[in-house]
Structure formats: structure tokens, C-alpha cells
Write a structure and sequence with these properties.
By secondary structure, the chain is mainly beta. Helix content is about 0%, strand content about 60%.
Length: about 120
């Protein structure tokens, strides 16, 4: 099983920056897709950004040009660089990864979610 732990959230003033990290741990796994979602009070969950191991990335219109998703494969860590933050970015951010876990007998897909981390942007 692959476990994810997010870090890097907190309180920042509008216009500031934060970098979220999502560290994956486990054994014999590979990540094909990583993504960041967010959930704000009274709103539906939103896919903020996602990327593939091939290097492609997609962003919600609301964050294009301000957020960047990246990955350090050597550290099994996914990042979300958030610049020019706005109060509307305030939410709990969740990391999600999809990939494959290998054992001596089989290979099977997995999806893992982090527990979420709070990002608060003050005006």
C-alpha cells in the first residue's frame, strides 16, 4: 500500500506563495499520475492540477499561470507551487496518486489519497 503525507500548507497573505509537498511511501510502486484537489467550505471538490509521469500537466482555469505541479521521482514526492495566492484559494488541499504496485506474483493498480492540508489566504 502506498501512503501519502502532505506538508507545506499554512496561512499566507494574498499575493504570497506556498509550496505543497506530497511524499509517497511504500514498496515496489510506480506513479503514473499525480494530482492535487482542493475542498473549500460550501463548495464542491475541485481538481486543481494533475500531471503524468510523461510530463504532461493540466490545470484548473482558476489557477492557470499561478500554480505549477511537479515531481521529484528520486524522492517520490509531488509538489504544488502556488504563487500569487488569492483568498479564493483558501481550502484543504489533497494529494492523489495513481500507479502500480508490484509483488512477486502480480502487478496491480492503486490509488492513494493524502489526508489533506489547510491553505488559508488572507486578504
Amino acid at each position: 500500500q502506498v501512503q501519502l503525507v502532505e506538508s507545506g500548507g499554512g496561512l499566507v497573505e494574498a499575493g504570497g506563495s506556498l509550496r505543497l509537498s506530497c511524499a509517497a511511501s511504500g514498496s515496489a510502486f510506480s506513479i503514473n499520475r499525480m494530482a492535487w484537489y482542493r475542498l473549500a467550505p460550501g463548495k464542491q471538490s475541485e481538481l486543481v492540477a494533475d500531471g503524468t509521469s510523461g510530463g504532461s500537466a493540466n490545470y484548473a482555469d482558476s489557477v492557470k499561470g499561478r500554480f505549477t505541479i511537479s515531481r521529484d521521482s528520486t524522492k517520490n514526492t509531488v509538489y504544488l507551487q502556488m504563487n500569487s495566492l488569492k483568498p479564493g484559494d483558501t481550502a484543504v488541499y489533497y494529494c492523489r496518486t495513481d500507479g502500480f504496485v508490484s509483488s512477486s506474483e502480480s502487478v496491480h493498480p492503486f490509488t492513494s489519497w493524502g489526508r489533506g492540508i489547510q491553505v488559508t489566504v488572507s486578504s
